[in-house]
Design brief:
The protein is of the alpha/beta class and about 325 residues long. The chain has helices at about 10-60, 65-70, 75-85, 90-100, 120-125, 155-165, 175-180, 180-190, 210-225, 245-250, 270-280, 295-310, and strands spanning about 140-145, 170-175, 195, 230, 255, 285-290, 315. β4 (about 230), α10 and β5 form a beta-alpha-beta unit. The chain binds zinc ion. Zinc ion binds near residues 147 and 235.
């Protein structure tokens, strides 16, 4: 053996560097993988952060925090339901839009959509739904009813007259008119009259979905509060085959009328009063309007009717008691 063979073997120093470079390379690879995994995770997390902000823009404050705390989809579900609850507001917007298109007082625009001018389908449903006393009652009672208020001008004038003649009446109010004139509603209640439901915005209930009918009645009931009587009158007297059953399922008896003097035509107070005298009978439900337009003739006619019918021995009672 000569010393010439020795250089073929790796020196201890070279073997040391082989080991060090192997460990170093491995460390680099693992570090690289770790960085890649971290970056991918960060990208995924930032993605869900975006959708949380997206929800926040729609729903409002507080939800973003809630969403950020949520990891699993099951808990997400109620939040989706919550979004659906907020989806009522487009309906509200729709109504608000219609409100600007369709004035509360339809006849003011010369359009022939006068309140309670019933079309052919009304007669089919009107029978037997009106007077508490009913036709043929011997009692000399008249049920005066007032629709489309409360109005800040005409309702107080009618309340003064009812007080003067010791008469009670029934006010079929619109929710949006209640919202506009809450103090007038309070006086109606304080004076002991009945407050009943005439929908929120005088929309025809004919052809309306159950959800919308419910909204019209319940929003008005919310505006009136506990004084709301369990009676409703459909705007224009307009009903379809569902209206009665749906109203009853929501707790309302449907009340129409017996004597309609068409006071909204404004034919003069004496004409309105004469029409009532022609139509009235013991137990009759009389339809007048305290809101929805200039009701000064209705006020004047009410005075004539109270005077004359009192002289004939009639008394005036509220319905839905
Ligand atoms: Zn009406």
């Amino acid at each position: 053996m000569s010393s010439d063979q020795k250089p073929d073997l790796p020196s201890p120093f070279a073997r040391f560097w082989d080991v060090v470079s192997w460990w170093f390379s491995s460390l680099l690879i693992f570090s690289f993988l770790a960085i890649v995994i971290t970056l991918v995770s960060a990208l995924l997390l930032s993605g869900s952060g975006y959708s949380a902000q997206d929800f926040d823009a729609d729903i409002g404050d507080g939800v973003e925090t809630t969403l950020a705390q949520l990891d699993d989809r099951e808990i997400m579900e109620p939040l989706v339901a919550q979004v659906k609850v907020y989806a009522i507001s487009p309906r509200q917007l729709e109504l608000d839009d219609r409100e600007t298109l369709e004035p509360l007082n339809p006849e003011a625009d010369g359009v022939d959509t006068s309140p309670h001018q019933h079309d052919s389908d009304v007669a089919d449903f009107s029978e037997g739904m009106s007077g508490q006393g009913g036709a043929g009652s011997d009692e000399k009672v008249v049920y005066l009813t007032f629709d489309d208020g409360p109005d800040s001008t005409f309702t107080p004038q009618m309340l003064d007259l009812l007080y003067e003649y010791d008469a009670s009446g029934t006010f079929f109010v619109l929710g949006r008119a209640v919202e506009a004139n809450p103090e007038v509603l309070q006086r109606i209640i304080y004076d002991g009259h009945t407050v009943a439901n005439h929908t929120w915005d005088h929309s025809s209930l004919s052809g309306m979905s159950f959800a919308d009918v419910k909204w019209q009645l319940s929003e008005t009931a919310r505006a009136v509060g506990p004084a709301m009587a369990p009676c409703m009158r459909p705007p224009f007297g307009s009903m379809d085959s569902n209206t009665k059953a749906w109203s009853e399922s929501l707790g309302y008896e449907v009340v129409l009328w017996d004597a309609d003097p068409r006071d909204w035509e404004r034919p003069g107070a004496n004409v309105i009063a004469d029409r009532i005298f022609d139509l009235v009978f013991p137990g009759a439900v009389v339809l007048l309007h305290d809101g929805g337009g200039d009701r000064s003739q209705s006020v004047e006619a009410l005075k004539i009717v109270l005077e004359e019918l009192s002289d004939q021995g009639y008394r005036f009672e509220a319905m839905c008691r």
